[in-house]
Structures are given as structure tokens and as C-alpha cells.
Amino acid sequence: MLLEQLLIQPIRRIDLIQPWRAAGKKVGVVADSLLAGAMAIHFADSALIFRSPLRFARCQTGTVIGVRSSGAPLTLGYRFDVVPSEDVDGLFAACEPRLSLTPDQWSGLRRVGKAESVFLRADLSCLGSDYLLRLRLLDRGWCSVSYRPDLDGVIELSPESARAEVPLVVVNSPADELGWLHPASEYPFVLDGLYWRTAHPRDWPWSLAKGLQSQPAGDQYRETMQRALSARFTQHDRLRDRLSVLRCAVQVKGVPDGLLEEISTRVQPRLA
Fold first, then answer.
1. Which candidate, 113, 174, 171, places its Cα nearest to that of 138?
2. Which pLDDT band holds residue 69 (cuts at 50, 70, 90)?
3. How far apart are CA 52 and CA 157, in angstroms?
4. Is 195 exposed, middle or buried (0-12, 13-18, 19+ CB in 10 A)?
5. Which phi-psi region, left, alpha or beta, contains residue 155 (left: φ > 0; alpha: ψ -120 to 50)?
6. In-domain check, residue 271
7. Is the pTM of this model over 0.70?
């Protein structure tokens, strides 16, 4: 494994890249877990980085750790590497938002005594059909790093092998968590030969928008929103992949109930 050079080193900080941002909740934290699209655990001069393939790679294969009896590769789901600590900023320079935490700010993680957070040991574990990396820390016992495609492909750092249960996610704007589901998120597409900047009604062709003034929430609205969002997800591979594996409960302003689930069953994910 790549981690031998980091053993018996203190952890300086953790960078959360694209941390979970549920409304009214602490950024990056759900229950006892830290959730983010990517993470970097910084040591003295090196960093252990974890990246979500769903968000940061064209290939959806995580780091290979073995071979199954069928001959298929066995992976962790996410990608992980050890890089010089100063290289982390360059790897994620264009990624926002970001949050840095010291070990004492790992809210909810079990702490034993007041010793420094020193990385002692690493091994692999299995939870159901999923494999994950376990890290043994001097003052916190075992922590695990797992991949959550059901939560929009986030990396989860948790005590032992715990998994965060996420309640209903309410998306009121593109700036919210899962904001890419919102009609106003700026992923342009072409529908019926016309360019649509977003799927929000304010960006619909004038003839459609005018016809819906008398039925703002009727069948025609639902049909138009369904066609617009289907076109968006069909024409943006990464969004289509993210929608196909999303499993948490979501309520999106301006999107009729059940419509996203309907679209998810219709569009074919790329995931390759």
C-alpha cells in the first residue's frame, strides 16, 4: 500500500473539497461523519488525498486493491494517492467551496485522551459489498474512509465503519447542496433545436412561458420541465451519472414531486 511513508506521523489538518452543505447544518459534517467530494489529510510534508470518481474523473473506477474470483477488479470506489502536501492546492485550485479543519475540529469523532493525532496503522475492511480503508489514530481509535455514490459520490470519513444517514435534502437554489438538480443551475442544453441556458421557466422560449402563465403548476408545466431536465441530463454525462446513483431523499424547488425519479429511470448512465 502507499501509506508506509506516513506511519507514525502526526496529522496537521484535513482539507474538505466541495464539503457537504445541507441547509441549517454545519458545513462538511453529518452526524459523526465528515463528507466531501474530495479530502486531503495533511501530515508533516505529505498528504493522503481521496477523490470521488463521480466528481473528479472521467473513469469511474476507484483505486484497485485486488481481483475478484470472477476476474473483475476489486476497488475502494474512490481514488487515493499520497502526494507532497504543497501539491494539494494545485490539484484542487479550481474547486470551490473548501474547508480546512485541524484534528481537534473533527466534530463528533471519538476522542481518547489528549494525545496528538498520530497515524499508526492502515488496513482494509468490508461493509456489505463495499470495501473501505481504515486508519488507526493514536487519540481516536479506528476511523474509516468510504465512498458514498448514493450521496452524490462523496467521500465519508467516520469513526469505525459508521455511515451517516442523511435526512431530506431541500434544494432551494443552485448554491445549495445538490444544487445541480435545481432548474436554474447553469448547465445549458438544446431542446427542439433551441438553446436553453437553464431549465428554469424564466429561460424557457417565450411561446412556452406565455402559455403557462395561466397554469403555472399544471400538466403542461410538468411535461415541459420533464423534457427540459431530461435534455439537460442526457447532454451532460457527469450529471447523468450523478443522478443515476443518487439515493437520498431530495425536494427541489420548482420540480414536481416524483419527476426526478422518473427522469432517472429514463436516462441511461455512462458510468464507464
1. 113
2. confident
3. 13
4. exposed
5. beta
6. no
7. yes
